[in-house]
Amino acid sequence: MKTPLIDGLQYANWSEKIFRQMRDGGLDAVHVTIAYHENFRETVLNIEQWNRWFEQFPDLIFQGRTAGDVRLAQESGRTAIFFGSQNPSCMEDDIGLVEVLHTLGLRFMQLTYNNQSLLATGCYEDDDTGLTRMGREVVAEMNRVGLVVDMSHSGERSTLEAIEHSSRPIAITHANPASWHKALRNKPDTVLKALGESGGMFGFSLYPHHLKGGSACPLQSFCDMIARTAEMMGIDHVGIGTDLCQDQPDSVVEWMRIGRWTKKIDYGEGSAAAPGFPQMPDWFSGNRHFSNIAAGLKAAGMDEDDVAAVMGGNWRRFFEKSFGAEAEWKMAGAAGAGA
Amino acid sequence: MKTPLIDGLQYANWSEKIFRQMRDGGLDAVHVTIAYHENFRETVLNIEQWNRWFEQFPDLIFQGRTAGDVRLAQESGRTAIFFGSQNPSCMEDDIGLVEVLHTLGLRFMQLTYNNQSLLATGCYEDDDTGLTRMGREVVAEMNRVGLVVDMSHSGERSTLEAIEHSSRPIAITHANPASWHKALRNKPDTVLKALGESGGMFGFSLYPHHLKGGSACPLQSFCDMIARTAEMMGIDHVGIGTDLCQDQPDSVVEWMRIGRWTKKIDYGEGSAAAPGFPQMPDWFSGNRHFSNIAAGLKAAGMDEDDVAAVMGGNWRRFFEKSFGAEAEWKMAGAAGAGA
User: Fold this and answer.
1) ipTM of this complex prediction, to 2 decimal places
2) A257 HSE (CA, 13 A, CB side)
3) Pairwise CB contact (< 8 Å): B105 & A103
4) Beta bridge partners of A81
């Protein structure tokens, strides 16, 4: 069977149109954000909405729970939807919700979203104090049940401590190297190297604020950067995490940035002059454009196997070792996981 | 493999002692009440407590989700724990929570607990107006996902309408025939016959208020009653649902009766003179005494196969056709289900 095409993060304004574009683009699996600042009950409401979409569009999408569901997606011509949260607000202050959320299908959870959380420090804080007391407990619980630690929006120290403390490989699902484009959300080489050495995964982001040159970033600049990063981290540890926010109104990026933590406006990666969602690069405006990236990687000198690995093979292997209970993972030979 | 031993309802003050007694008594599976008046978030807290017990006592118990887990319990020498709620308060006013609760493992839900609910009328109300508008919608949703409608605490009309409206067989997990012992919680023959004809299941209760003679009810009176009811309903449609509330303090029966719906005391099946839990019959004080019932059924003239069917075989078959999605159930040949 062909290597699957997998996107490590999207947060679209979901609709039948977008689900059909996923099929047009041959997307076999995608990690979707189901919550930012939502508390547990609000996250469950979002899951209820997804359940209705699964019921409404059974020929296009279904809920992914295990790595095996990627294969099921390929065999049945549908896209497997894997849930994630960009903030731990969904688990409130209750470690017992980690397992409950995993049972409901959550497969990724960021320990922070830009700000300090109960668990760690976000990449927009002045001082990063690393994993908190609760953060260490929650990482261990996430390891136990098979919920991936995602540090895309965390600070450097917190990220390095999460890599160190986690008994299982972690992910940065959507970001780029700061050495290519300096931004609070992009990651220093210290983090990239530690992530690769620990068997973790890095997903390259198409969100214009993470791109050198923003919306005008050329495809080849992006793909050359991927090739260079793959050399530094190891080809097995990189994938795509588009951060595609298709069809979202600008009110949503405002909610993403301020949630309920401030009464003032905060522009995050934007500015007063450009407060809304930035325009996507013309070579990636949605789910039908993954083939452009694959072509760009080839033009960057990657061979066919490496391109397939970046476009989904690596995520699939990461899913295989990440979504099951730790006890099963250890029995299956965890030793190879950090290789 | 031996026919399994299954109890159709318990609500004990759970402890390692009780889990060990389940093993001593050879109990392969049990439907446990995880919520009475709890709302969704409180029900999730109760699930979190169960998750801790599953983590703490993996050699004694595990969460049952499918009928196949009864076999797994037999093979691994453990008791499979199936969740249920005695009231629909866990789903609040939100039909989307039906699927969410099923995903979390809920396999039985009563439409009412003595009082009028959003869905139907309880057996303590003066007037029973049957299934409500929302009740009909929720029964259809329960049918779709594989959550069993349990009418143990509902009124006669509501129960008959649930049997009629439900596309899948329903259950009365814990009650006795009113013709044997008149009580608001025991069921008239109209209900028993309709339940049997529709392929449903009736679990006989050991709760003393449901027994002729109360705590002093002789074993043989109970078992003779089962044999007579099996003749009326069909041997395939009866099982045990002990309603065992082992080790619970009397404050719990008060909570069961009044929850948050009244500020006054309500004695339910008890009285001011006897407000607490009644004493169990000496021939069934806990999970080690199932063999007494099996012996009593034999003494009532039942052959070995029928005794095995009542002690668990019928519940297992009911689990097989009840816990999966309706679409799968129909594919597997639902036509036989009402036989």
Assistant:
1) 0.91
2) 17
3) yes
4) A30, A63
